[in-house]
Design a protein that fits this description.
Strand order of the largest sheet: 12-13-14-11-10-15-16
Structural class: alpha/beta
Number of strands: 18
Oligomer: single chain
Largest sheet: 7 strands, mixed
Shape: globular
């Protein structure tokens, strides 16, 4: 937030101000919450089929990229333009997925008992406050909104302060598709206002994607109010490269995962835990992959890594690198802040990473890879799980059964994959454990997070 009373969008590639938007006043906040409450009473009575039709229209508008949404994303957060387009496509996918499957997910679930009829009926909770981050400014919102709105809830978005244009554009998308006023609204408010909005009587629950401190604060506030909350927080995803892995494929996949969204992803690969028998060869391949990534103007089609979202975030990342090096890590690629404007940071590889270093213990939100050598599968698993996080994890091995056993029963994370990278998918539940949060988004579990799973029992009149 810059400038009292305004949310300011800044181009992270140049440092120049793009636009500023007035923050909502107290009266405007109250009016928006009243509209949400009124809208909910009507929206909950709309059929799932009608809601699905409206959501399909949103998907059409996302596909058309009306108003230059991809360019807006790239301008506000520095996301490479190709990734901005891909993000819009994924948002359209989640809309169409729920439009097609919501009815069956929300259908009454009948249970045989001695009563004449017993079943579980799904009812919406009400207005849901969504506190969302800047790194995937459209996807994070739609991941929540598509299932929540189709379940009959209404959404109130408090987006990150550096993406106000995206926040308002998302609300415009729902309005242009025909959603009734108040079913989805954006509030431009500072973080300090979240507690007041959450405490408002009309707000039924909250969801947050963001940092550990932000998640803890919202969870504490929601707990004191006895309101449900779903949290998706940080991650330090371990990628295990075992001695029988396809090293070329593993190096390519690991580099791609580490640097997606310029490395600013909760589920990006962060720690690379490599068996000693293949360590040197894999490291050479991996460093070559990282070095070949093109850093530059995010509006250019060939750019693979743009600037980080803000200069302060870039500087924080560099401080973590320097602190890790001071504690004994070595830089084998990158690790220096480039000259010139913008929040750029080069692909960086650290080796000799050990406990006690930021690169080992904390989340590094940028294109910095921490490489750790291990002597055995058992040690790899132990190192992978020696973290307060638990969002995603991957294992690379030619023995697929071995990999599946490790992923399914040994790694402590919400999503574990074999010979690929961790990614969210509308068809599968997504979320973390430990300090990475709780609750699930997407798939059938996601649409049922914000519903009252009401038990209904009917006895005969005899």
């Amino acid at each position: 937030m810059a400038g009292r009373g305004f949310a300011v969008a800044v181009d992270p590639g140049t440092g120049r101000e793009i636009a500023r938007y007035p923050l909502a006043s107290a009266a405007e906040i109250d009016a928006a919450l009243t509209r949400a409450s009124t809208a909910f009473r009507a929206w909950r009575a709309v059929s799932v089929a009608e809601r699905s039709e409206l959501l399909s229209r949103v998907a059409d508008r996302l596909d058309a990229d009306e108003g230059g949404l991809a360019e807006l994303m790239t301008a506000e957060v520095g996301k490479p333009i190709t990734e901005s387009r891909a993000e819009l496509a994924k948002c359209a996918w989640v809309c169409r997925y729920y439009a097609e499957h919501a009815a069956e997910m929300l259908a009454d679930r009948h249970v045989a008992t001695e009563r004449a009829k017993s079943y579980v009926h799904h009812e919406p909770l009400g207005p849901i406050l969504a506190v969302m981050p800047w790194n995937f400014p459209f996807w994070q919102v739609f991941r929540f909104a598509a299932p929540a709105l189709l379940a009959g809830n209404v959404g109130i978005l408090k987006h990150s302060s550096n993406v106000p244009g995206c926040a308002l554009a998302i609300a415009d998308l729902f309005a242009a598709a025909g959603f009734p006023d108040g079913v989805f609204s954006t509030l431009l408010i500072p973080a300090g206002e979240v507690g007041r909005v959450l405490a408002h009587p009309v707000v039924a629950a909250a969801t947050l994607t963001g940092s550990e401190p932000a998640g803890a604060a919202v969870a504490a506030a929601a707990g004191s109010l006895l309101k449900k909350v779903v949290l998706e927080l940080g991650g330090s995803d371990p990628y295990l490269v075992l001695e029988d892995a396809d090293l070329v494929a593993a190096a390519r996949t690991c580099a791609a995962s580490r640097c997606i969204n310029s490395g600013q992803s909760c589920i990006a690969a962060k720690r690379f835990i490599v068996h000693t028998d293949v360590y040197d060869k894999w490291l050479d391949l991996f460093v070559a992959e990282m070095a070949n990534l093109r850093v530059g103007d995010p509006t250019e089609e060939a750019t693979q890594i743009g600037p980080l979202a803000r200069v302060d975030l870039r500087d924080q990342l560099h401080e973590q690198v320097l602190a890790s090096v001071a504690a004994g890590a070595r830089v084998v690629l990158g690790g220096e802040v480039p000259d010139g404007p913008g929040a750029f940071y080069p692909p960086t590889v650290l080796v000799d990473v050990a406990p006690g270093m930021p690169a080992h213990d904390d989340e590094l939100f940028g294109p910095v890879a921490a490489v750790i050598r291990v002597e055995s599968e058992e040690e790899a698993i132990r190192v992978a799980n020696a973290t307060r996080f638990g969002l995603g994890a991957a294992v690379f091995t030619r023995d697929v059964e071995r990999g599946e056993r490790i992923a399914a029963t040994q790694l402590e994370a919400g999503t574990c994959v074999v010979n690929t990278f961790v990614a969210s998918d509308p068809r599968l539940p997504f979320g973390g454990i430990k300090a990475s949060g709780f609750g699930r988004e997407l798939a059938d579990l996601g649409i049922r997070e914000f519903v009252n799973q009401k038990t209904v029992i009917v006895n005969s009149s005899d």
